[in-house]
């Protein structure tokens, strides 16, 4: 793989263990448990980890701050929602953590459904939702890179706003990278003009190829005024010593999910987003697509990054990830449960095949 690809993991900030047949331990979400995972990531070659968001979970930014304080190189990819945060509050919090951590902050802006009324927020239709997200992203970038910012948008306003501390540019990094997901037309228009990195879920290679081409074309049409858009893959990777063992374990996990023993990702969601529906529809094409993309989990409660899994030996999974990289993916956010076991296993077996 080329030297500029980056490999991150996923750290749960959810009281429930997840949707891959992993039973939650008693201290599943304690600072010690999560710190152990973050330190294991540092020791096993990972760049950092995505920390998810959603009402009814512990606060994502607080967890990221605690983990940054207990680590030295771990980079949190902090999922945040417009509306839960106002742009200036978020820009200041992120600039502060970026300053304290020596430039380790990454941000994933999420626009999917949430229990908005619970924290006093409201949204209109999808068009309005993404218009607000676009304003949020544009404004926080301005607050990070300009001083004395005045902005009067439809959704957000600031006057004479200068965020402290000021971010210190490092090479071509002017501010924390803004990651973004979403497959609807409204989402793609936001990604094309505002995002630094567009994250895809685990679609087959053809689907990812088409979406990359479409987003590159959109970036030109919409006169993107930022660095070229980068692309990432957020997917479950089930790795074992042999191909046979991996498939045996994958099928056993799905059987457990089919019994309803694993909990459902749908427990805390409302409605199904376009990108999620694309993944669920894949199962109609077959249980295994490309070389080793397993779609069956989506039929039995697997959602989000757990809808499709890349299954196999380290060599099998590395070969598949390389094919995504050949399409232009440079950011990989992998995970499997139990988290700590897999951070170590995949860090030891898979990453050496992928990192220079």
From TrEMBL:
EC number of the protein: 1.14.14.5
Enzyme class: oxidoreductase
Gene3D superfamilies in the record: Luciferase-like domain
One GO MF term attached to the UniProt entry: alkanesulfonate monooxygenase activity
Domain Luciferase-like intervals: 6-331
Annotated TM spans: none
Key words, A-Z: Flavoprotein, FMN, Monooxygenase, Oxidoreductase
CDD domains per record: Alkanesulfonate_monoxygenase (cd01094)
Listed InterPro entries: Luciferase-like_dom, Luciferase-like_sf, SsuD_RutA_monooxygenase
Highest taxon of the lineage: Bacteria
Protein name: Alkanesulfonate monooxygenase
Gene source species: Phyllobacterium ifriqiyense
Origin organism lineage: Bacteria, Pseudomonadati, Pseudomonadota, Alphaproteobacteria, Hyphomicrobiales
């Amino acid at each position: 793989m080329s030297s500029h690809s980056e490999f991150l993991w996923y750290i749960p900030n959810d009281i429930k263990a997840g949707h891959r047949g992993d039973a939650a331990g008693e201290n599943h979400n304690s600072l010690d448990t999560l710190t152990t995972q973050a330190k294991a990531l540092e020791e096993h070659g990972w760049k950092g980890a995505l920390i998810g968001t959603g009402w009814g979970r512990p606060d994502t930014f607080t967890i990221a701050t605690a983990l940054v304080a207990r680590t030295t190189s771990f980079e949190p990819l902090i999922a945040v929602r417009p509306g839960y945060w106002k742009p200036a509050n978020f820009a200041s919090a992120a600039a502060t953590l970026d300053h304290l951590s020596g430039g380790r902050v990454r941000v994933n802006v999420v626009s999917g459904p949430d229990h908005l009324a619970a924290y006093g927020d409201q949204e209109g239709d999808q068009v309005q939702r993404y218009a607000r997200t676009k304003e949020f992203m544009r404004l926080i970038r301005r607050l990070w890179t300009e001083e004395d910012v005045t902005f009067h948008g439809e959704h957000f306003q600031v006057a004479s706003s200068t965020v402290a501390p000021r971010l210190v540019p490092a090479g071509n990094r002017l501010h924390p990278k803004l990651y973004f997901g979403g497959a609807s037309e409204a989402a793609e228009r936001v990604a094309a003009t505002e995002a630094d990195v567009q994250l895809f879920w685990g679609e087959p290679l053809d689907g990812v190829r088409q979406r990359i081409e479409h987003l590159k074309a959109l970036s030109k049409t919409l006169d993107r005024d930022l660095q070229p858009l980068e692309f990432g893959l957020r997917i479950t990777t089930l790795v074992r010593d042999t191909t046979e063992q991996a498939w045996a374990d994958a099928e056993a996990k799905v059987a457990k999910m089919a019994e309803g023993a694993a909990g459902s990702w749908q427990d805390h969601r409302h409605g199904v987003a376009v990108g999620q529906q694309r993944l669920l529809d894949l199962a109609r094409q077959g249980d295994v697509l490309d070389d080793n993309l397993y779609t069956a989990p989506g039929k039995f409660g697997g959602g989000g990054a757990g809808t499709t899994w890349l299954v196999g030996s380290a060599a099998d999974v590395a070969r598949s990830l390389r094919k995504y990289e050949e399409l232009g993916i440079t950011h990989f956010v992998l995970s499997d449960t139990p988290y700590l076991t897999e951070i170590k296993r995949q860090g030891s077996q898979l990453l050496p095949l992928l990192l220079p």
